[in-house]
Amino acid sequence: MTTLLAKTIIILIAISAPLLSSANLGGGSHSYWISRTHDNLNKIENYTAVIEQTHSNSPDKVVSQLLFKKPHNFHLTVSQPSHLTGFEAGFNDHAILLHNPNTSRAIKLEGLKSPTSASRLEQVKNIYWYNNERYEQVFKPSINIAERLSVGLDFIAKDSDSEITKVNSFADYHHSIFMQASYSFSSGITSKFTHTEMAFNQEQISLPSLRVPKKTDMLFWDFNRASLSDKQARERISTDIRWPLDKDDIWSFGQHQFYQQTNSQTAAAYFYNDAFFMIALTQPAETKKELLEGTPLLLNKTKVQFSQWPSFSDLTFELNGIHYILISNIHPQSLIDMAKGMLSEEESGEGFYLTNK
């Protein structure tokens, strides 16, 4: 049975921060709608939710329970179907965890930089402008979802080469997060999630610690450790590895850290600023630790698995005997585009760092 768990939930900041954009619903300046979305998101101290998700490639309905705390912390666990029961994903500002107890495998990252008070606004601004430039936005009549007024908004890709071609969404009017969304990909695959229960700003909400059983087969990186210099990275890390490239400097990653373990193909790169991060993990394909399958994409004739979580997305693929995992909180279409760029270099065999240095 296919175990698809793609796009389990997406808060509005992930794909469509502008709940209301520019000249819609009576108009308004870009700065007004950016400010309004930011203010709505800031109303959220925490929330709990039950999410149901379906996927056009799978007969399964995935049911998950979510705890979320401001600014981006969350813990998500899957309760259905049985073969995914117990799968968990978590984020706590400093660490990320993806854990599948059914296969006793996990990915854990520590040492992420804490967001600043200004980073939330910067995220809203950048995602807003990304959507404004690349997606037509069409409003639809509002409906009630989980007893909450939800504004209808479709995002239609302007570029025919976009993998995410359309998003049919309904977002909470007061808090600017998706209550329901259906994603259409260029391959014809669709993925839909719906909040069936939602409660905001409850008292005494605490998130579980990001721990796994001792016998778990875990891919672990600690970005608190001293990183390699660019020179050391070139000496110790295989030149066959391709790093993601933000060619147009959309996300302004001003800092980077490189790491290497065990062998020259087991490496990690952490690119970041106060608002956004991009993490690239590599290992020999024969030693990869698969957690689950995501939305299947085909980029430059290469099979890719793409998944989204409340505060980040991940994308995996293999190229020239190397297994790649990309984890980022940038716009998911931009993450896909960066993967396309890495795969487009296959014929030349030219390696590159995101810094171009």
Question: How does the SSE layout of this entry go?
Answer:
Blueprint: H1 12-15, H2 30-42, E1 46-55, E2 58-69, E3 73-80, E4 88-91, E5 95-100, E6 105-110, H3 119-134, E7 135-145, E8 148-157, E9 164-172, E10 178-185, E11 190-200, E12 217-222, H4 230-236, E13 255-260, E14 267-272, E15 277-284, E16 295-299, E17 302-308, E18 313-319, E19 322-328, H5 332-344
Parallel strand pairs: 6-12
Antiparallel strand pairs: 1-2, 1-11, 2-3, 3-4, 4-5, 5-6, 7-8, 8-9, 9-10, 10-11, 13-14, 14-15, 15-19, 16-17, 17-18, 18-19
Helix pairs in contact: 2-3
List keywords for this structure.
twelve-stranded mixed β-sheet; 15% helix; globular; mainly beta; seven-stranded antiparallel β-sheet
Structure notes:
The chain has 357 residues and is mainly beta. It is built from 5 helices and 19 strands. The chain has helices spanning 12-15, 30-42, 119-134, 230-236, 332-344, and strands spanning 46-55, 58-69, 73-80, 88-91, 95-100, 105-110, 135-145, 148-157, 164-172, 178-185, 190-200, 217-222, 255-260, 267-272, 277-284, 295-299, 302-308, 313-319, 322-328. The chain is globular. Mean pLDDT is 86; it is low at 1-26 and 347-352.
Strand content: 35-45%
Tally of DSSP β-strands: 19
- Percent range of helical residues: 10-25%
Q: What separation lies between the terminal Cα atoms?
A: 45 Å
Overall pLDDT: 86
Number of domains: 2
